Predict the 3D structure of the following.
Amino acid sequence: MNKIWSLSWLKILIYSVLVFYGIITLIPFLWALSASFKPLTEIIAGEPNFLPSNFTLDNYKQIFIKEPLFLRWFFNSVIISIAVTIFNLLFNSMAGYALARLQFQGRRFWFFLILAVLAVPIQVTLIPTFLILKTFGWLNSYQGMIIPNMVNATFIFMMRQFFINFPRELEEAAAIEGLNTFGIFRHIVLPLAKPALAAQAVFIFMSSWNNFLLPVVILFDPEMFTLPLGLNSFKGQYISYWNYIMAASMVFTLPAIFVYAFFNRYFIQSVSFSGTKG
């Protein structure tokens, strides 16, 4: 009985800490949401009120109607993020499956090379990326934003771990039925890898959607800006239009919330996705 009582109190304590942490995390978002309906004068006054004293929709009218490039920035972010996510799901899965199942010369070398890439900060690769894209003439272009991000070493490693734990019996049975390696991967492995793919899709999309470093280095035409870079244009040398920034930020969060909500049912199932076998 005492053991059960102790476990109950421990559970209550853990949930209390999580709820408290959730509230702390939610407060800045709620303030930003409230600020998106305030005029600039009320925001810079510094009043700690969550409910706007002068409620207004002018901030949203400004970014959608009076800012001619906002929808273009939104469109650019959607196109780039979707393309990057699709390419990553395909190439990371293929590379992970090859490292987990196929026997080829240099497999261990490529695996350790991928592990080495994980240790390199992305900031270190920005200048080489810029020089390569400049050589190909891909600065200020969609391909310049998409191609450098088509694969991700982290998710190649994670997909390898998932496929290592994948039941070999299913692949052997498919091979007996006459499927080749690509057929097994396409018709057997990928459909059963939905939890891993869903988790990968959420992280890749959000990473691409929030990407600021690469756009700020290679994009210089305002019409090619993505949303993170476009939001930065609301900040001037002497004044920052925080009311427009907050309104645009709320619009900015909607696709990420939608993607997470869509893949949420698979997200929890992906716990086994980072196994340690092999």
Summary: The chain is about 70% helix and 0% strand. The longest helix spans residues 2-35. Residues 41 and 243 are 9 Å apart (CA to CA). The radius of gyration is 23 Å.
